[in-house]
Amino acid sequence: MINRRAFLKHLAAGTAGLAAQAYLGPAGRALAEGAGAKKLNFVFILVDDLGWADVGCYGSRFYETPHINRLATQGMRFTNAYAACPVCSPTRASILTGKYPARLHLTDWIAGHKRPYAKLRVPDFNLQLPLEEVTIAEALRPAGYTSASMGKWHLGKKPYYPQQQGFDVNVGGTHMGQPPRYFAPYTIPTLKEGEKGEYLTDRLAEEAERFIEAHRDRPFFLYLSHYAVHTPLQAKKDVTAKYAEKVRPGQRQKNATYAAMIESVDDSVGRVVAKLDALGLTDRTVVFFMSDNGGLAGVTSNAPLRAGKGSLYEGGVREPMIVRWPGVVKPGSTSDAVVTSVDFYPTILAMAGAADPASDVDGIDITAVLKGTGDLARDAVYWHYPHYHPGGATPGGIIREGPWKLIETFEDDRLELYNLHDDLGETKNLADAMPDRAAALRKKLAQWRRRVDAQMPTPNPDYDPKRARQGPAPKPQPKKT
């Protein structure tokens, strides 16, 4: 089997032109053969912990997101878009590789949550995105693209930073899952220190503008991965005060600081889009907007969805997703197609006319949906989360097939079956009323786990029901001398 990185290296050097043509689809070949045609640019804006209902165009009446709303009026808004995992690192890996976290054996946030006395012992999973995997940035490089990763990375320590995964530029990406603080001094080693009081979300928008300006004359892939709106909750005082004045009794969404953080993210979207407009790049730049998992329960409300980050219910995995592709996507359109974060990889490569030597990509190209010319050739979407989460989730898996969603809990083999078309809030478990459907979906989920070589939890010999929810004992601190 050909080594994927070796293939791309030779392709970049021009020694595998015929092989490249074999891997390009019809749309890719047409683009590659177009005389003098300018290639598309890609801007991928990923927000951390942004809930499905945290955006105005998805129903929020508290958070103000005029720039994101405008992006939706210019592109396509997806109503059934999903993160591949209810936590961050696996979803990020899925975006960059087009593979399910289960296939990557990267199924929890790095470094994960440990419960030494729980009923199940979670598997040893990858604490980094393996270098053998080919990222979008690596796959785009032979097609002449320059790639930048800005903001949160959280896919491994220094030997696994963006520069080792195909990105030409890394601004602010480390192993950290959250910033030490949102106001400078940041103490992020891969980010040049800002002036005291500078706000991190603004700084990343400025860096994105600078990158776009510098690479305006060649195709680029900008992965703008905000640390916001992850904790610590820190925002500009004046913006926070504005939202504090808006809070009314009985509101579900009411955290003024979180609202101010969302507004700063929205401002950054506006700045990036304005820069594309100013440079005349809008018509040949595809903009993606997405979140990596559900909103954090207790900080925001994902209603009408159930639960939040870390949960296998819809509040943990359903995301706001917008794609703007001028001249192709109908402005202001919506799609109820079931899409997931593994789909970005094959979709972007198809748009770019780029080659991919992989045979094990799980995502599918969604350009037909974006063009309004066809449906997705997909029967089901899957999740695998063999871990415990501080929010209360226990190891389990999901399959969604059409409107039907089955949740399998590994500790007790409990099944939950929901019809999401009729019961978006997952309030009525139909597993007992429809045992044949539940059993068929469970079988299909198990077959998928075998196909992707999913790691399963095992019985824990140290199981203690009284201490099952406890984490590991704190490490002893050295005595002061």
Would you write up a description of this structure?
Helices cover 28% and strands 16% of the residues. It has 481 residues and is α/β, with parallel strands linked by helices. The strands form three sheets. Strands 1, 2, 4, 5, 6, 7, 8, 9 and 10 form a nine-stranded mixed beta sheet that branches. Strands 11-12-13-14 form a four-stranded antiparallel beta sheet, with helices on one face. A hairpin with a 4-residue loop joins strand 13 and strand 14. Helix 8 (200-214) packs parallel to helix 10 and helix 9 (237-246) crosses helix 10 (256-278). The longest helix has 23 residues, at 256-278. The chain is globular. The protein starts with a helix and ends in a 22-residue tail after the last strand.
Gyration radius, to the nearest Å?
22 Å
| CATH 4th-level superfamily of the largest domain | Alkaline Phosphatase, subunit A
Total count of strands: 15
Taken from the alpha-carbon principal axes, the silhouette is: globular
Largest sheet: 9 strands, mixed
So, CATH architecture of the largest domain?
A: 3-Layer(aba) Sandwich
> What name does CATH use for the topology of the largest domain?
Alkaline Phosphatase, subunit A
The helix/strand series, from N terminus to C terminus, equals: HHHEHEHHEHEEHEHHEHEEEHHEEEEHE
Q: Write down the CATH class of the largest domain.
A: Alpha Beta
The low-confidence parts are 13-36
Percent strand: 15-25%
| Alpha-beta content class | alpha/beta
Q: What separation lies between the terminal Cα atoms?
A: 59 Å
Tally of structural domains: 2
Please tally the helical runs, counting DSSP H or I stretches of 4 or more residues.
14
